[in-house]
C-alpha cells in the first residue's frame, strides 16, 4: 500500500475532518482514506466523454441522430 502525506491543510478543514471522523468512529487518517477511496471510484467528466466516444465508434449513430431522437421523444410526451 502507498503512503500519502499532506501539508498545509487549513485548520478549519482539519476541524471538520476531525469532527466527521469522530462521528464515524474512526481516525482522521481513516476518514480521509475513505474519502479518497470513494472519490477515486467516481467517474470524471473526461472519463465519461471518452467512454461515450469509445462506445459510439463504428455505431453509425451521429449527434444529429441523437438530437432527432430526443426531439421526437419530447414531441410524443406533449
UniProtKB/TrEMBL annotation:
An example GO BP is: regulation of DNA-templated transcription
Its protein name is: Antitoxin
Annotated stretches, region: Disordered? 49-78
At the top level, the lineage of the source is Bacteria
Source species, please?
Answer: Glycomyces albidus
